[in-house]
Amino acid sequence: MGTDYKSKQELEEEDWARYRKKQQDIFQRKQARFEAEGFKCKTEGCGKSFFDFNQWQIHVTKHQDDLKAAMICNQPKCGKKFDNRKAYNEHCETHKVELKARIVNSIRAVLMYNKHGLLLEVFEQEYRGMVGKPIPYKFFGFTCMYDLLVGWPEVVEVTHLGGGQVLLIGVPDKNTEHIAKMVGNQRDNREGFNRRTGQMLARVGAEVIHKIEKVSGRKSRMVPEFMKKQIEQLIELDMFEAGLFLSEFQQVYEQEFGYPLDFRSYGFFSLEDFSFHGLQGSATMSLDGFSWKLLPVVQVHQECVNGGQPTRIPGEVRNNIKKLMKENPFGMSQTSFMRNYENWFGYLNLRQLRCKDLVELICLLPDLCVAVGSSSEGGEVTVLPAGEERKNHEHTAPLHVLGEVKNNMLQLLQAHPAGVSLECFVKGYEGYYGYLPLDKLGFADVLGLCRAAADVCEVKLAETGQHVIVPVGRKQTDDKVDMVKGSERMGTVPESVLVDIQTVLKEHLDGIKVSRFQEAFLETIGENLNPVKLGFHSLKSLLRHLPDQVEVVGDDKEDPTAKLVGTKVDATDKGPGVRLERCKIRPGRVTVKSMTETRIGLQMEDMRKELDEMELMMEQFY
Length: 622
Hints:
Distance between the termini: 101 Å
Helix content: 40-55%
Low-confidence stretches: 303-308, 475-490, 569-583
Number of helices: 23
Number of strands: 21
Oligomer: single chain
């Protein structure tokens, strides 16, 4: 017949049962002896017994007072008698020093072989079980055990945990420091006699554990040689020829060797800390995009010698930058480049392309664009299309400021091949792009700017005496990708989706932030709006694709606002008062334009003439 083996849990239960049986037998023997003798006085020559603890305590205290009055030492195996009170007190102090040294050694012996310390309630039991009697805190002038431990910071570090629990951590001295380091490098054990402390530590977070380890200061931060050899063998396997990602390191280590990688037991605070500082000479770290991976030291050395392979930019990124530079032929700043790229194509992840910054990416694409200037030139580098060098830059303003203004002028005049009056041009520019930075460009007026921008427009004098701004044809703009006015390659918006977008914006007539639009769309329509499925790279590009229905207001650096085109003054009923969202209430006649259950649209009579004039000016401009 085969031998029946017991599981670990069954063996532990048997051990625990034997321990409880032993403690029960000890208690029964003590109880039987107490019933026979009671509390017995141990003073030499007395031997009286008491069954009342208070009476026994009073009797013992009387013995102590008598010995102190007679200047006789009350310590066992001493009993010296003195005639001088000073000599008697000095003799008692020597007993206190000797007793304190023994108690300090006992406290360290109980606490130091517990890696994360002991709870106060468990410590008293463990000390009594090891020494055989409790700590005489009253002998040292303390009222309780807690006060004594707090008063000896060179022996015990007291740490407060959640729930009112107190954790005691032994502080080693020079003679026991090596023992503390060996215990600190052992694996965590929350079983056995330290079960109660383990249960409490299992409820706290990693920050508390790090704090406890920092207080104990026992970590040597040294990785054993056998573990270094294990990791060397692991990363030299054929399956990890390209490197072992740090996110898979712990799982692969446990699968290969059968036990987890407990890097915290060696004094390291994270896996990155362990890999960087603990594996020096055995493995090295390499950044692959956003992820770290482990590589053999020899492989990294060979890559450094061979110079590595040049970074390849994906074709999609190259095409996107090519389209962006065609749309901005006069260049732009780094900030505008990143903002425009994100608006049209999504986020440009430079780290994923292994580029330190945008200038490094531009240097890798000499056939598409070029970087001009330095950080001293207004703090920005200008990005120009390849071959578009500006050697004769006569203006004091940074090159990218003039280039962006020209790009805006070119976009604005594309819809007016016959030209537009100077006044309408200024109003249109300020309406689309904001004010013209004439002070930065060094021009006194807009007319001087238009005359200087001969490669974008020309100024003609009409028969009426007005100056007309006429666009200049550019060969390279004929094949541009029209990103704003509905290019086929930018995607199309179905009629049903357009109706849903208008429904959402009607609920927010005063506008809604683009960052909150998806949430409002889900709450109103009941489904998510996915711009990628519609052929757009972001929600901003989708909304900007609908200029006749949706108006996007605000700077792209911040969170812009989306609202319906053509929304007028709205009034909202808020109980006893009425609040106008676009202007203040004042006396006068009004016309009701629209009315719903919650909103009323009003128009002041005296504003109608001003509105008619504005509409006439807009018709002349467009």
